[in-house]
Each structure stands twice: as C-alpha cells, then as structure tokens.
Amino acid sequence: MKLWIACIGRAGRGPERDLYQTLRGPRRWPLALREVEEKRKLPAAQLILREGELLLQSVPAKSVLVALDRRGKVLDSEGFGPPAGTLA
Questions:
Q1: pTM of the model
Q2: Cβ distance 55 to 36 under 8 Å?
C-alpha cells in the first residue's frame, strides 16, 4: 500500500508540513506528498472547481480516496477504516 497526500498549493513551513513530516515518520507504507496549484487568476467559484479537478487528476488509478476537512466529522481509528471483514 502506498499513501498519497494531495494538497492545494505548497506545503511550506507550518502545520501542514509538520503534519506531513509526522506522518512520514516510521511507517510501514511509503508516503508521498503531491502539491497541486492553479496558477491562473480565476473567480473564487471557478477556482474551487479547478482545484477539485487538479486534486482528482493527481490521484493514481485504482486508489481509495479519503478527503479530510477540518469542518468534517471526527472519527476514531475504527470509524476511519473500512467495515470489518472488507480488506483482503
């Protein structure tokens, strides 16, 4: 299994880079960071759509997608994973 983190813009210094460094620590699976960015000046609504397209285009084929949002639902480890018995 290979884990990818895709983000909009550059994960320079700050909490985003710190999180990546923490997750990249001693893990069993390889972890890659993919940064995507729309360089054109677009109206806000168009920019949101374009950034979504860029994120989806960055996903390798046959991947399982997990979207994280600070406004989303908080899950424990069991809630974050697949239902029991679904992994081979």
A1: 0.61
A2: yes
